[in-house]
């Protein structure tokens, strides 16, 4: 097997791995907000979308590399096969982009629904509402304390810098 043919085979393996990774990201995005923790899960959505965009960029780069390599294959049949593979990759890439968009819309709907339910529980009264409110206040208190400590450390550092 010559070098170009081997490079094309390696690209095909890389493509398969990148597609699998992207499909995992899409599934994770689609299920975002379904666990009932809408606001907490919403914070992981940008990270998931970043991973998905990275995978899409990798797929696009692999398409470009295959496009260049397909013309260099040794036989006419292999060139045609490479171009057919490239065509199917382009279709698959477009399907994956559409699936990612649909997953994001589903996640947005899930998160909105979970946030609405959470709001209803917080305002609804009862024991569960009190527990949720207390948890939120505790989280807010911890955040406030952490910010206060950070600011205190900043001031201490500035004083130390001014002394020397």
Automatic annotation (TrEMBL):
GO terms for molecular function: SNAP receptor activity. InterPro entries: Sec20. Residues 52-106 form a coiled coil. Keywords: Coiled coil. One of its GO terms (biological process) is retrograde vesicle-mediated transport, Golgi to endoplasmic reticulum. One of its GO terms (cellular component) is SNARE complex. This is Uncharacterized protein. It comes from Aegilops tauschii subsp. strangulata (Goatgrass).
């Amino acid at each position: 097997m010559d070098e170009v043919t081997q490079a094309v085979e390696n690209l095909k393996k890389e493509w398969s791995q990148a597609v699998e990774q992207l499909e995992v990201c899409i599934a994770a995005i689609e299920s975002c907000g379904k666990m009932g923790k809408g606001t907490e899960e919403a914070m992981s959505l940008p990270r998931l979308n970043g991973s998905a965009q990275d995978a899409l960029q990798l797929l696009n780069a692999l398409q470009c590399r295959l496009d260049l390599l397909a013309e260099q294959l040794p036989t006419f049949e292999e060139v045609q096969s490479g171009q057919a593979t490239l065509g199917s990759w382009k279709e698959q890439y477009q399907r994956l982009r559409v699936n990612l968009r649909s997953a994001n819309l589903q996640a947005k709907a899930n998160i909105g629904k979970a946030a609405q339910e959470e709001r209803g529980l917080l305002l609804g009264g009862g024991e569960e509402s009190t527990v949720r409110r207390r948890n939120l206040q505790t989280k807010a208190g911890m955040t406030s304390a952490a910010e206060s400590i950070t600011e205190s450390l900043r001031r201490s550092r500035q004083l130390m810098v001014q002394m020397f």
